[in-house]
Structure formats: structure tokens, C-alpha cells
Design brief:
single chain, Herpes Virus-1, 3 helices, 25% strand
Amino acid sequence: MPSRGANRSVTHLTYGAVRRRAGAPCSVNPEGMSVSCTHLDQIAITPPDEVAGCEDCLRTGDRWLHLRLCLTCGHVGCCDSSPNKHASAHAREAEHPIVRSAEPGETWCWCYVDEVPFEVEFE
């Protein structure tokens, strides 16, 4: 279970750095401008060390490719490369903008609203 209210620091990444470091799908900022997430105040949980799988796919017996953790409520959904795209559907429906990769060894985050990658160090 994710814990709440942890101290954290944020590092905004360039689009290329996320692609190299985590293989995350992202596009290049065409203006070459530095972009930052404006929703950091909505991070309310510290990610758990492990997750069982996409909560929605587990209920329906479906499959997923990669997992994303909502940093507002802890919902675990599947990525947009998965057939059901539960993580982004949750972000839209619940208005929870930030996810973190729930894949082992990946620590990148993504804001669906600002379309910006970054990392959060949880203490």
C-alpha cells in the first residue's frame, strides 16, 4: 500500500533523457522550451515497492504491457501501449494528472495534463 505525505524532491527531465533512461513514449518539445509540471501539489502518495498488476485488467481477466501508478490515489493501471489504456482513462475520469512507471527499475513520472516527464525522489 502506498504511504501518504512523504517528503520528496522533483527533477524535471528533458524529453530525450526520459526516452534514453526509461524507454517512455514521449515527443520532442518542438519549441525546445523548458516545460515543468504544474500539478506537483497533487502528488499524495509514495509508491510501493511492488504492484500486483493493472487493477482493472485483473478484474476483467485482460492483459497489459506496462504498468503506471497514479501518484494521487495509488491506482495501478496499464499504459497506453496496452489494449485497455486504463492508466490514462483513470487520469481523465478521476482528474488525477500524474503517474509514475510501476515497472521494475523505472522511476520516471508523467503529467498527462502538462505532457511533461520528470522524476520524483521519495524519502
